[in-house]
Amino acid sequence: LRFDEKVRVVLFKSEVKGVFCAGADLKERAKMDDAEVAHFVKRLRNLMDEIAALPVPTIAAIDGYALGGGLELALACDLRVAASSAKMGLIETTRGLLPGAGGTQRLPRCVGVGLAKELIFTGRQIDGQQAFSMGLVNHTVPQNSQGDAAYQRALTLAKEILPQAPFAVKMGKLAINRGMEVDIASGMAIEGMCYAQNIPTRDRQEGMAAFREKRPPHFIGK
């Protein structure tokens, strides 16, 4: 996906009705020794980092349970859409664990330190409406009879992104992600570097021409 120039947005959805991702199989985990557990969690953390590092926008469509590593997967995405009936939580402390695939880092960056601590310390599960009210998800929608309301809303969101200049969107994502990790002066420098890369693109020239000619732009990602 990272190297496919035709990919513009990546949506994550489940083929299992009522479940986005239920997290690790604890019965399988119980059969592992300590070294195997550490290796498993390290690989899982690396996977989440790979997802977060995808250059194009990513959207998690949460139509059911997103628990433990399942919520960590959603947190690794740029945007999240949830059915109001979905259940989300970093429930690791209820099993004698703590989040190990990015949850302790991505949740506070998403909802703030205080709320993240409360959710992680209690292992509480929240529904889609609660998740929306605290900023954990971008949109919440009533579930439909097919059980894919979040996916349908995520598709609509993806279709809003698709007409925009692909390289500019990628640079926007890069500037935000890198800038959030540094002070604002350094972030401004990062924005400047990303903007400089966008200046010579054909899409920027097309955007200006379309504005002058009062027509929709036709971006090609170059």
UniProtKB/TrEMBL annotation:
Keywords: Lyase. One of its GO terms (biological process) is fatty acid beta-oxidation. One of its GO terms (molecular function) is enoyl-CoA hydratase activity. InterPro entries: ClpP/crotonase-like_dom_sf, Enoyl-CoA_hyd/isom_CS, Enoyl-CoA_hydra/iso, Enoyl-CoA_hydra_C. The keyword Lyase applies. GO terms for cellular component: mitochondrion. SUPFAM superfamilies: ClpP/crotonase. Belongs to the enoyl-CoA hydratase/isomerase family. This is Enoyl-CoA hydratase domain-containing protein 2, mitochondrial. It comes from Merops nubicus (Northern carmine bee-eater).
